[in-house]
Specification:
270 residues; alpha+beta; Aminopeptidase
C-alpha cells in the first residue's frame, strides 16, 4: 500500500531530514529543560536530572570566526558549570560536523554516536500483526505509561533505579508537548511496548519505540509501528522519518515496513 503524499512545499534533501530529526529532539527537550541561547549554541539544562543527556546538552553548536573550536566548547562548559551541571551531549547545527569541532569534542572525552536517518518511501502493510496487542493513547493510561517507561529505562541502563526514575520523569514532562502522540501497546491489560510520534508541520517523526524484552519476536513492535504509520497515513504527512543507531537489529523491521536510510546523523555524548 502506498502512503498518500501531500503536495510538497519544501525540499526533502537528506540535510533537510537530518535537521528535522534534530528539531524533534529540541522540541521535546523544551518540555524537560531550561533553554538558554548563547552565541555559539542553544543550551538545555536541568540540574535536577544531571545524568540525562536530553536534559543537559548543547544544540546548534556552530563555529564562529572569532572563536576556535576549543574556545567554543570552553564557553559551553563554563555555562554548564555556572549552574552546577555538565554538558552531556553536543549536536551541531550542520548535518556534517566541522572537523575542528569533532576533534575538540573527542579531546574532552565525548564519544561519537552515529545514526541513520530513515525515510518511509514505500510502505508495505505487514501480512500479519499481533491481534492480541491493544494499542491505546498513552495519555489514557498515564500511571501505567510512566511505570512502563521506568521499567524500560531499568532494562536499558543496567538496573539503575535512580536513573530510570529520572528518565521516566523526563518522559512525563514530554507529554506537555501537544504535538506528541504516544501509543501504548498492551496484552491482557499489561503494557508491552510503546511508540512516540511527533508532528513537525507535514513531517511525522517516530521519536522512540520500545518493547519489553520478554515479548520480543511476537510482532509487538511491528503492530505498534503499523499503528503509528496508519496515523501518519490519515494525517496525510508528506514524510515519515525516524532515527536508528547504525547496526541496530531493529533496522530489519524498519526496512520491512519500507523505511530506507537516506542520511547520517553524528552526535557526541559523554
Amino acid at each position: 500500500m502506498e502512503l498518500p503524499i501531500a503536495p510538497q512545499s519544501y525540499s526533502t534533501s537528506p540535510d533537510t531530514l537530518v535537521r528535522a530529526i534534530i528539531r524533534a529532539d529540541i522540541t521535546l527537550a523544551r518540555m524537560a529543560a531550561q533553554e538558554t541561547q548563547l552565541e555559539i549554541a542553544t543550551i538545555f539544562t536541568n540540574p535536577q536530572r544531571p545524568l540525562i543527556h536530553m536534559c543537559n546538552f548543547a544544540a546548534d553548536v556552530r563555529m564562529e570566526a572569532e572563536r576556535t573550536a576549543e574556545q567554543a566548547l570552553n564557553e559551553i562548559d563554563n555555562h554548564f558549570e555556572s549552574i552546577g551541571c555538565r554538558c552531556r551531549m553536543l549536536i551541531s547545527n550542520e548535518p556534517q560536523w566541522p572537523q575542528p569541532l569533532a576533534e575538540a569534542a573527542a579531546a574532552r572525552k565525548y564519544q561519537q554516536q552515529t545514526a541513520d536517518v530513515c525515510l518511509l518511501s514505500n510502505y508495505t502493510l505487514p501480512a500479519t500483526l499481533n491481534d492480541a496487542v491493544q494499542v491505546i493513547p498513552g495519555r489514557a493510561a498515564y500511571k501505567q505509561l510512566q511505570a512502563f517507561r521506568q521499567q524500560a529505562a531499568m532494562e536499558q541502563h543496567g538496573g539503575d533505579s535512580s536513573l530510570a526514575e529520572a528518565i521516566a520523569a523526563m518522559y512525563i514532562d514530554h507529554l506537555d508537548e501537544a504535538r506528541l502522540e504516544v501509543f501504548l501497546g498492551r496484552i491482557d491489560g499489561e503494557a508491552v511496548g510503546l511508540v512516540n510520534l511527533l508532528t513537525l508541520g507535514q513531517i511525522g517523526v517516530i521519536e522512540w519505540m520500545y518493547t519489553r524484552q520478554e515479548t520480543r519476536r511476537r510482532g509487538v513492535a511491528r503492530t505498534l509501528l503499523t499503528h503509528a504509520i496508519d496515523h501518519c497515513h490519515r494525517a496525510m504527512f508528506e514524510q515519515v522519518i525516524l532515527k536508528v543507531p547504525q547496526d541496530a537489529t531493529a533496522m530489519r523491521l524498519y526496512e520491512e515496513l519500507g523505511f530506507k536510510p537516506v542520511a547520517t546523523l553524528m552526535q557526541f555524548v559523554r
